Amino acid sequence: MKKILLIINVLLCQKAFSQNNISEKLVITQVLYKQQVAWNNGSIESFMMPYWHSDSLKFIGKKGITYGWQNTLDNYKKSYPDTTAMGQLAFEIKSIDVFSKSSAFVIGKWFLKREKIKGDLGGYFSLIFKKIKNKWVIVVDHTS
């Protein structure tokens, strides 16, 4: 009898986690959508809001690893000095895996539509999100 109760309890917990999992995926999707809107409005500062405001933030790109929120912001500003360079951003989310109440992994595709002078850009990204102070933040960004 104890085994049956244990199995029922585990199944109920899994169902509750699965429902929470779906809502957490929606929240993370909204975070990414807000980033896209911020970028397309020309605000790198607003785009950076979901990143962890910490020196431990990691951004991995073609030039290697950048540590820290401010350094990452500074690199974005150097690479995209104006709205022409920024273009219009579109994300295509390939997967969101919520591993726990406080960690998630996102894989996606990004595309920048820019004027012909600058040319279009695109690639893939993987993000590690952590829930810190009840808010999902990006703690690792690997963009290629």
Fold and architecture overview:
- This protein has 144 residues and is α+β, with helices and mostly antiparallel strands.
- It has a single domain, classed as Nuclear Transport Factor 2, Chain: A (Roll), CATH 3.10.450.50.
- Helix content is 40%, strand content 37%.
- The chain has 4 helices and 6 strands; from the N terminus they run ααββααββββ.
- It has helices at residues 2-40, 44-47, 69-79, 83-86, and strands at residues 58-61, 64-67, 88-100, 103-113, 121-132, 135-143.
- The protein has a 6-stranded mixed sheet, with helices on one face.
- Residues 5-17 have low confidence and may be disordered.
Task: Label this structure with key terms.
6 strands, Nuclear Transport Factor 2, Chain: A, 144 residues
Write the layout of secondary structure elements.
Blueprint: H1 2-40, H2 44-47, E1 58-61, E2 64-67, H3 69-79, H4 83-86, E3 88-100, E4 103-113, E5 121-132, E6 135-143
> The biggest beta sheet, please?
6 strands, mixed
Q: Round the Cα radius of gyration to an integer and report it.
A: 18 Å
- What are the segments in which pLDDT stays under 50 over at least 5 consecutive residues? 5-17
Number of helices: 4
CATH topology assignment: Nuclear Transport Factor 2, Chain: A
Work out the count of structural domains: 1
Q: What is the compact description of this entry?
A:
With 144 residues, the protein is α+β, with helices and mostly antiparallel strands. It contains 4 helices and 6 strands; from the N terminus they run H-H-E-E-H-H-E-E-E-E. The radius of gyration is 18 Å and the shape is globular.
